[in-house]
Amino acid sequence: MKKLILAAACIAALPAFASGFTRFEAAGDEPAEKKDSAAFVFTDIKVVKTTPVKDQNKSGTCWCFAGTSFIEEAVLRNGGPELDLSEMYTVRHAYIDKAIKYVRTGGHINFAQGGAATDVVDMILAYGAMPEEAYRGLEYGEKKHSHYEMYDVLRGYLDGVIKNSNKHLSSSWLKGFVAILDGYLGVPPEKFTYQGKTYTPKEFAKAFGIDKAAEQAVNITSFNHHPFYTEFAVEIADNWTWAKSYNVPLDELKQIIDNSIESGYSVCWAADVSEGAFKWYEGFAILPAEKDQADMTNAEVAKWSKMSDKDREAQKFKITGPTKEVTVTQESRQAEFDNFETTDDHGMVIVGIAKDQEGNRFYKVKNSWDTNQIYDGYIYVSEPYLLAKTISVMVDRNAVPKAIAKKIFK
Fold first, then answer.
1. Mean pLDDT, rounded, of the chain
2. How many domains does the chain have?
3. Which residue intervals of 306-365 are DSSP H helices?
4. What per-residue confidence (pLDDT) applies to 3?
5. Vertex 267 angle, CA 92 and 116, to 5°
6. Is residue 283 one of the residues assigned to a domain?
7. What's the pLDDT band for 131 if we cut at 50, 70, 90?
């Protein structure tokens, strides 16, 4: 049974997939200085160049914040400037394309706030990009993103269109849908000025290498219900485009992630964050192993045996420092996905590799839940957690080790 943490379950996810937990609902190349949490001391070993942490606030658009961050970091990696791209420009276009498909299938795909990092890539290649200053997507009286009302209105409108009491679609239903989006997010400019030059969205994407970064993005996953070294669409609701991922064994997935970071590329990460030891405000995520009574004193065994299942579960997630974690295998990972114990909750960006005070390996992950926590918007994720709870990743194709690339890029 899943334990929802931080506050509640997610709204509605990247190959990479991410549902878009809101932060209100959530259950540099040089090594950084050590920082202390109540339980861990982390030392960054390798951190790639990244843009500042952003805040998706009360919107289920983590997929877009993560995918956009990945593109911004790719531009940096390729020698370009630090950009602050508009997430809502992408979100607006994704909603339109998703609405068309939702109506075309009679409502039999998932229409939700969540989506996939591939949506970011698809929208950039189809519609270009623009800077945040040109399109903030805040035309509805809020200082920060809050999409509850907008989503309910959009979904209700589409369901009315599909119900279709007229027995046929009018020629204006899409215009009405776009008008709702424009009312909330604003009408995007056809041209805008950035640093003294005027661009269309496609011209802007080309001028700054944004389109090139999108073209180089590939999705990787690791499940054994499909053959390795083939592509398949990960079967999750928010993969509404049915985007495909390359399927590799778990050890090769880890090699791809590690090689990406070591080569200076960030990794867009779709993962389950509803585990009890995903401690956002404390800045770490681990998968503690079940307590072994053989390692307990007689007094501890007596106390443990008298606990309720609920109390044992709570005790398991009281983390006071490095602890023994589960051993993750291809088979255990598959079983948790099949049993809905690993779900497509959230999208973030892996930007570094670190270690704790006992030398255990962690990954430094950039979130989009603002900076008001111990590591200013970053969380350290243990290797077992990453191996078990990854749905998929999006990486630059050039970051895939050559030996693996030969197997998948046929």
1. 89
2. 1
3. 309-316, 330-338
4. 37
5. 30
6. yes
7. very high
User: Is the pLDDT at 22 greater than 90, yes or no?
Assistant: no
pTM for this predicted structure: 0.89
- Side-chain-facing half-sphere of 287: CA atoms under 13 Å: 20
Whether the upstream peptide bond of residue 16 has omega within 30° of 0, thus cis, is yes
**Dist. CA 250–CA 255, nearest whole Å:** 9
Q: Specify if 153 maps to a domain.
A: yes
Which single residue is written with the structure tokens 């590329």?
Answer: 265
Between the CA of residue 340 and those of 7, 26, 202, 317, 319, what are the distances in Å? 20, 18, 40, 20, 25
**For the domain that residue 88 is a member of, what is the CATH number?**
3.90.70.10
The Cα–Cα gap between 44 and 13 comes to 28
Which one-letter amino acid corresponds to residue 322? P
Q: pLDDT digit string (tens) for 210-240?
A: 999 999 999 999 999 999 999 999 999 999 9
How many Cβ atoms are within 10 Å of 73's Cβ, its own excluded? Answer: 26
Q: What is the pLDDT of residue 166?
A: 73
3-class DSSP state of 281: coil
pLDDT score, position 165 = 73
6 domain-assigned: no
Cβ neighbour number for residue 197 with a 10 Å cutoff: 10
| 13 contacts 19 by C-beta, under 8 angstroms | yes
The CA R_g of the chain, rounded to the nearest whole Å, is: 22
- Whether 137 contacts 88, CB under 8 Å: yes
User: b/e for 333-345, b at 16 or more Cβ within 10 A?
Assistant: bbebbeeebbbbb
Q: What pLDDT is recorded for position 17? A: 46
Range(s) of the domain holding residue 85: 17-287+325-408
| Token pair in block for residue 118 | 């591939």
Residue pLDDT, tens place only, 364-373: 999 999 999 9
* Rounded distance between C-alpha atoms, residue 263 and residue 101, angstroms: 38
Q: Does any domain span residue 367? A: yes
d(CA 365, CA 377): 9
pLDDT over 50 (residue 245): yes
The per-residue pLDDT for 43 is 97
Q: Give the separation between CA 206 and CA 195, rounded to whole angstroms.
A: 15
Question: What is the DSSP code string of 92-135?
Answer: HHHHHHHHHHHHHTTT-S--SS-EEHHHHHHHHHHH---BGGG-
In this predicted structure, the answer to whether residue 156 has a pLDDT above a threshold of 70 is yes
If you average pLDDT over residues 167-193, what whole number do you get? 95
Q: Are strands 244-247 and 217-221 parallel, antiparallel or unpaired?
A: parallel
Question: In angstroms, rounded to a whole number, what is the distance separating the alpha carbons of residues 360 and 358?
Answer: 6
| Residue 331 identity | E
